[in-house]
Amino acid sequence: SPPQQPPITLPADRLSLSSKAMSSSPSLEILVRDAEGFIVWNGPPFSSNGQPTPKNERVSCSSTKFSLDGSKFMAVKSDGTISIYDSASLREMQSFAVANVTATEISPCGTYLQTFQKPTTPQEKNVSLWNTDTGDLAHSLYQKSITKTTWPSIRFSPDESSACRLATNEVQFFDPKDFSKGITSRIRVPGVAAFELSKTPASHVAVFVPEVKGSPGSVQIFGCGKDAESQPSARRSFFRCSSVQFSWNHGSTGLLVVVQSDVDKTNKSYYGETKLHYLTVDGTHEGLVPLRKEGPVHDVQWSFSGSEFAVVYGFMPACVTIFDKKCKPLMELGEGPYNTLRWNPKGRILCVAGFGNLPGDMTFWDVVSKKQLGSNKAEWSVTSEWSPDGRYFLTASTAPRRQIDNGIKIFNYDGKRYFKKMFERLYQVEWKPESPDRFDEISELLKSVESLKLEEGKSQGQGSSQKKPVASIPTIQRPAAYRPPHAKQAAAIQAELLGVNPEGEMSKNALRNKKKREKKKAAEAAAASGSNNA
């Protein structure tokens, strides 16, 4: 890994504006869970020794998760107790003792805790929704089993203004403030297999119906709170689709759909075929996103402004393209070993990386000025995430995906490594969520750093005009290729028969015979040319 480099330090006058904003901004915090439990660190910038300071005593647990707004977080302890903590004070607010729990989820604003228990009888309501403030049971229902597409059973919008669940041939809606009202509305969609509620505002819901008996599959967009027989505002049909991934933009005006097929009929990919579709809620655009290279769609991410999105796609080396809301290319970021995209919360900087089975290359782009800020490498990374203020990028190698070399790396927004810490066993690392609006814009910092670099360049140019001696670069001999013993023996036999030694050099007799042959050829060529002239 590259050597650790100190962060860029700006003069006091340059940071006057930024320091004022940072004084009113919330401090960054990092939740870390290892083999001994979870602990919360204060986030960067760290103290003078460059190490984070723990904010609490380590608590033994098997899993943790923040609510989307960062106000609360839950911890499932080793004895099965589920505890709810206040993120600001790290004080335990509520605890729930629910037997045989196999899955848990906390709502976006931390109002509800959802638990799933293995059912023993069909009459048993095994999905429970608990109020985290009072500890009361708000709602319960029966669900036979859960998968990635069906859990959590009850989905909330980011602001908890809407709640719904997937049932047989329909999507059911609830009043998030009063679940005792039961189902308030429903949308009938025969054969629906997956759905996704739009982001704030929670005005629409997208549903997926797989293809059945020769009829195509489809993705449809409905308005929330409509009657059961309402018609979709947008619809897109396609064949060869076994699963989909939904991605709503911020503002709930557009939907990206990655359609996955288990079989690639062109036989170019063992992992099947993927296509990227784009739909708007008003139905003005429904079609494929024009990608200029064949191959899978590795990742697609909306910017936080919701006005553009980035796609990394194609057979390796993959292409990276930024599109606007009308699917028109805005910027090409070249090709490379990439499969991951992470937008800065401020929407200005994009990290393009290659994690998983790729080497871990990262490049950081300023999308506004259309230039690359820097690059680095984070090998074996399993998770990656921007800090809420958009100034730091965290990567982590965690178990059980990786059983060795577990650790945390934090980089500045321009790719320079800021912090590194290794662990014997690391399970989880998360920034405490905060609204990006509570932090200052990063554009001021970018301008300050750019002007500082220009001044440093001028000061170096005004120095001594004497040229520094350039150190000679030693030539490095390439290691010889491995030769197995039988090949060495064959080379020795060849030397005896043809007069060539194993190293490839000719013997004296072979060299003498070669010169004779060359002289004979030259004489024959001269004689032939003379006869032609005559």
TrEMBL record:
Name listed for the protein in its UniProt record: Eukaryotic translation initiation factor 2A
Protein biosynthesis in keyword set: yes
One Pfam family hit: eIF2A
InterPro entries: TIF2A, TIF_beta_prop-like, WD40/YVTN_repeat-like_dom_sf
A Gene Ontology biological process term: regulation of translation
Every Translation initiation factor beta propellor-like domain range: 236-429
Superkingdom to which the source organism belongs: Eukaryota
Similarity-based family: Belongs to the WD repeat EIF2A family.
Organism: Brassica campestris (Field mustard)
Entry keywords, A to Z: Initiation factor, Protein biosynthesis, Repeat, Translation regulation, WD repeat
Compositional bias annotation for Basic residues: 511-520
GO molecular function: translation initiation factor activity
